Amino acid sequence: MQPDLNLRDQILQRACPTVMVPRFEKLELLQEPGHRYLTASDGLWIEIMRPWLHLVLPVALQSVVAMPYGLLEPTVAFSFKTIPYELFRNFVDDARLALPNEFAAWFTWNSRNHQFAYRPISATSASRAYLSFERPVLDDDEHLVVDIHSHASMKAFFSSEDNRDDAGEVKLSVVVGHLGEGQKMQSKLRLCANGLKIPAADIDLLSNLEIGGHNSTIEETVSFR
Ligand SMILES: [Zn+2]
User: Measured in angstroms, how far is the CA atom of residue 167 from the centroid of ligand 1?
Assistant: First the structure.
C-alpha cells in the first residue's frame, strides 16, 4: 500500500486487498470471514470466506498477457454435508398456505452447534408476483445460507427483481414455482457470491440437490454428493 494513501482508500484496501498468487509456493488461504481478489497467471479471481463456505472462483480470465504468478483451482467448499429435508418441506407447506401470494424464508446455519434453522420471513406486503419483507435479525453465530422464495403458481425462474435482490450477497438462492393445485412443483437453485451467480448444476456439491416433485416425490434427504 502506498504510504501517503488517503484514509478511505487505506480502509478499503485493508478490508478487501488484491493479492498476488505465489508461483513457487502455496497461497495461504483467507483465515477470517471476508473476501479478497487474487491475481493469478490467468487473470483475476475472487476468494470468499464465510463460516459455512470457502470459495475461490475466476472473475476475469485472460491468456493474452503472461503474468508471473501462480495458478489457482476453482473451489466451492461447504462446512456441511447436507441441508435437512424438513426445511424444504416446511417451506413448501408454508408457501402452499400462502397461496395465491408469494412466500419467502431463510435457512440459517449456526457455526457454534452446526445446526440449521428455518426462519419464515414476515412479509410487509405480499402479492402474486411481489414480496417485500424485513430481513430476519440473526444471532452472532447464525448465518444466512439459503434464501428461498416461492413464485406461487407461476414457474420457477430468477426474475430481474431476484437478480437485484441477490446481487452482492453470499448465499444459496432458491426459487420454487408451480405450487398451485394440480401443478408439478419446480425449483431453481444457484449460488450467489458477491455478484457471481453459479447454477447448481455447475457445482458438484449442489448438482444433486432436488427440491422437485409434487406431494410425496420430494426426496427424503437433500444431500450433497
Ligand atoms: Zn422470484
Answer: 13
Contact by Cβ (8 Å): 92, 98: no
pLDDT tens sequence across 25-41? 999 999 999 999 999 99
What DSSP character marks residue 129? S
Confidence of residue 129 (pLDDT cuts 50, 70, 90): low
- The pLDDT tens digits of the residues spanning 141-190 come to 999 999 999 999 999 889 998 899 888 899 999 999 999 999 888 888 88
Q: How far apart are CA 128 and CA 150, in angstroms?
A: 10
Contact present, 33 and 49 (Cβ < 8 Å):
yes
Distance 141 CA to ligand 1 centre (A): 28
Residues in the chain: 225
Phi then psi for residue 13, to 5 deg, are -75, -30
Roughly how many angstroms between the first and final C-alpha of the chain, as a whole number? 42
- How far does residue 163's CA lie from ligand 1's centre (Å)? 8
Q: Cα of 214 to ligand 1 centre, how many Å?
A: 20
Number of other residues whose CB lies within 10 A of the CB of residue 52: 22
The answer to whether residues 213 and 184 touch, using CB atoms and an 8 Å cutoff, is: yes
- 109: cell is 446455519
